[in-house]
Inverse folding.
């Protein structure tokens, strides 16, 4: 129960903490307005409301499209996270798109929070409803599990923030930007798995199986999964899409023609 | 203004064709049924043919939410009380693929055993849920 709560929390809440680190790192120093307390409060409240509504209507949503509704909604959500992050990655150095970048960052934050938050609320509420108040050990384990998992998530997020800040200043200026892209690829992989699961994308054989080295069910496996979309048994389709989804934003970012057009040097 | 090269339109068309093909062949998948009762999966060992994509229909007969989870199969699906969920798995090479209920990982456990058998895709291996035998033994009906 304790380990299960920690793993579920890592799976659901770690993306939220990681994205806060990444967005704070990219935006607090360069454009202070996005990190204003008013903006954070509004978006935070909106994310909580959206996660709550998703959780409330999840049963009805899951029955839509012949039982494929939940997969459709989540895959579209994860895909949007990838698209927004990829655009943010491409436009990272372009000062002329400051407002657009701010809105994209807010959309990413909102989507990551609501999609992942809804999953954890579902687990907590369903477990809570099954527990009778006499089962105090279950409640205690749930409570301890949440506390421990919050501690792990906060520690990882703070560590990541300072590590990337250091690497941005001393190793490569855009390292955190690439990190954002890898995080988005992880979200995109979730979208691909969901589409394969409902037979929208064709299923294929697994390319490899790394369960014996790093299991996805372990704490490290969950962390790697959130950081760059680690899969123990990736399909051919996932692998191809991962490569394409990485190469296109990188090529566009480094495209000389695009750089000239966005900076206004050619019409 | 960023101009989109013509090759991207071709790519979009190709992706659309891909999706259309996938949806049209869906009806031919062999179906397998799995039931969840008292936080236990029945059958606990589901036998499916190798190298074929199959439709797995999971019926949650409990009054609580459960999440079907399998790292081996790379599948995750929330199933609400007294509802049926459908997922597709495979094609898989022979072997054992474990699954569990994420909300009751100690009791709700099972595995999919993939074996080499000749299966006619028009004839499902398992029958409808009403004929489902609630035994923990391996279940395979031809």
């Amino acid at each position: 129960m304790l380990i299960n709560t920690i793993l579920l929390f890592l799976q659901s809440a770690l993306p939220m903490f990681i994205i806060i680190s990444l967005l704070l790192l990219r935006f607090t120093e360069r454009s202070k307005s996005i990190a204003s307390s008013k903006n954070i409060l509004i978006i935070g409240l909106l994310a909580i409301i959206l996660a709550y509504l998703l959780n409330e209507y999840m049963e009805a949503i899951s029955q839509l499209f012949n039982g494929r509704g939940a997969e459709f909604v989540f895959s579209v959500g994860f895909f949007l996270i990838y698209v927004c992050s990829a655009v943010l990655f491409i436009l990272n150095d372009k000062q002329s798109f400051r407002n657009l970048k701010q809105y994209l960052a807010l959309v990413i934050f909102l989507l990551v929070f609501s999609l992942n938050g809804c999953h954890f609320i579902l687990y907590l509420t369903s477990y809570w409803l099954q527990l009778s108040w006499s089962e105090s050990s279950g409640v205690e384990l749930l409570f301890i599990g949440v506390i421990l998992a919050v501690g792990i998530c906060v520690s990882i997020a703070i560590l990541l923030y300072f590590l990337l800040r250091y690497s941005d200043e001393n190793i490569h200026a855009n390292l955190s930007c690439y990190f954002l892209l890898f995080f988005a690829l992880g979200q995109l992989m979730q979208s691909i798995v969901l589409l394969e699961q409902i037979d929208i994308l064709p299923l294929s054989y697994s390319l490899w199986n790394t369960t014996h080295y790093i299991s996805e069910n372990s704490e490290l496996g969950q962390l790697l999964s959130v950081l760059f979309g680690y899969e123990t048994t990736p399909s051919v389709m996932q692998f191809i899409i991962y490569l394409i989804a990485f190469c296109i934003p990188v090529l566009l970012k480094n495209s000389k023609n695009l750089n000239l057009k966005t900076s206004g040097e050619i019409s | 203004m960023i101009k989109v090269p013509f090759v991207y339109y071709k790519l979009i068309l190709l992706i659309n064709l891909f999706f259309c093909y996938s949806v049209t062949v869906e009806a031919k998948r062999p179906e397998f049924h799995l039931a969840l009762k008292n936080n236990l999966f029945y059958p606990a060992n589901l036998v499916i043919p190798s190298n074929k994509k199959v439709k797995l229909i999971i019926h949650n007969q409990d009054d609580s939410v459960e999440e079907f989870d399998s790292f081996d199969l790379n599948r995750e699906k929330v199933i609400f009380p007294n509802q049926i969920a459908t997922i597709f798995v495979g094609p898989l090479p022979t072997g054992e693929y474990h699954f569990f209920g994420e909300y009751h990982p100690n009791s709700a456990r099972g595995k999919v055993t993939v074996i080499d058998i000749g299966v006619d895709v028009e004839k499902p291996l398992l029958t409808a849920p009403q004929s489902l035998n609630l035994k923990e033994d391996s279940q395979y009906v031809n």
User: Anything to note?
Assistant: The longest helix of chain B spans residues 6-24. Chain B has one domain: 28-139. Strands of chain B lie at 31-37, 40-42, 45-49, 54-60, 66-70, 75-79, 84-89, 95-101, 109-115, 138-139.
